[in-house]
Design a protein that fits this description.
about 160 residues, two-stranded antiparallel sheet, 5 helices, 8 strands
Length: about 160
């Protein structure tokens, strides 16, 4: 399920509330974040993995007793990322962003003028609102009701 909305609509904050609720329901949750147009950097200059990438490695991985990270020097389509999350054991993949992709979406509406997103986007499954209002015939949730949203996602996943 995608969570989409304009900048500062609460996507990340909502995700951080949903993840533990869904994990408590027994789901292993994967999250994919779209960094629209930025060249994010998870590596630290001067560290070994950074030096390997700077030397031209197309793939660099680092692993420890508690986690693994792999850096690829190319963008990947959302479908590939979702598939990889599933292969890694995710029962549910939550996606922040990627508005134009054709996956089920929860649209976050912070201000009245944000509601045009509902008309513009495809595969809208529900609306998460900061204020009272109806934006189409979709299920509506308050931004403050993470528990209800988590139940909605859990039930959608299990259909």
């Amino acid at each position: 399920m995608q969570l989409v909305g304009y900048s500062n609509s609460g996507k990340t904050t909502l995700l951080t509330k949903l993840i533990p609720l869904l994990e408590q329901k027994g789901l292993r949750v994967g999250v994919i974040k779209h960094d629209g147009g930025h060249d994010f950097e998870i590596d630290q200059p001067g560290k070994d993995t950074w030096r390997y990438r700077e030397a031209g490695a197309s793939l660099v991985a680092v692993t420890s007793q508690t986690k693994t990270a792999m850096i690829e020097q190319r963008p990947l389509p959302l479908a590939v990322l979702i598939e990889r999350m599933g292969q890694a054991g995710a029962d549910l993949v939550l996606v922040e962003g990627f508005k134009q992709e054709a996956y089920p979406k929860l649209v976050l509406i912070r201000k009245n003028e944000d509601q045009e997103l509902v008309r513009r986007l495809t595969h809208v499954e529900g609306i998460v609102c900061w204020q009272d209002g109806r934006y189409g015939d979709f299920p509506h949730f308050s931004i403050d009701d993470a528990s209800e949203i988590a139940s909605f996602l859990f039930n959608k996943r299990n259909k």
